[in-house]
Amino acid sequence: MKLFVSADMEGITGLVDETFVDSSKHNYKRGQEIMTSEVNSVINILHKKGCKEIIVNDSHSKMNNILIERLHPEAQLISGDVKPLSMVEGLDDSFSGAIFVGYHARASMKGVLSHSMTFGARNMFINETIIGELGFNAYVAGHYDVPVIMVAGDDQASFEAKSLIPGVTTATVKKAISRTAALCLPPEKSRKLLEEKTEEALANIHHVKPLKAPKHPVLRIEFANYGQAEWANLMPGTEIESGTTVRFQAKDMIEAYQAMIVMTELASRTKFC
Question: Where does Zn(2+) 2 bind (predicted)?
């Protein structure tokens, strides 16, 4: 069995504000250590249960956060950017399942450090379904017929995962109080929970179906201001549909995903001063 792990940072226990997830801030090294430890807890059970190949994709910011010198020796790490499939780089139809660790709620929702790729995006849609990073990544997994069997993060990420993926196992390592405060499990208990939930997810793997997007999905991104929509609209094939919402007709989910990356990167060039 071959498993894929996508590891974000905002949904790791104890990481509650930008000082833990921004490499220029004073708590970042602590954040790296706790993130690596949580990822190792998942890998440990995957290995014990007979997974022959475990690929971990570092999925936060510059995607070089996991401490490879402390990574479980039975896993391989995809580190750095630029990656054609960003948070799910390396995922294909050879995997039996995918696990998302350290995930957070989508933009415009309650949750610790909630957002969708960038802070300029208010809402994202595939056809009429509103999604964030979790949903986008699950749809890419579904494109390759790979089920997302577990999502770990705060309670709002768990809620979002269950609303999108019937039967998914969730591991709630902290409960949101506000966007920058949470009731957190101590790392020792978080690691134990992740091990228990990973074992549960593996036992349930055949009962979770891949999340499938429409064959020719329509991507819509609602930005925070018109300047961001103008930048995103520079990508060929897009149109400003209404207000600050930019539309793109994709041939498949992979094209929709990459269009989302390009549009949000362009939009981030907008200046506010």
Answer: 8, 60, 104, 133
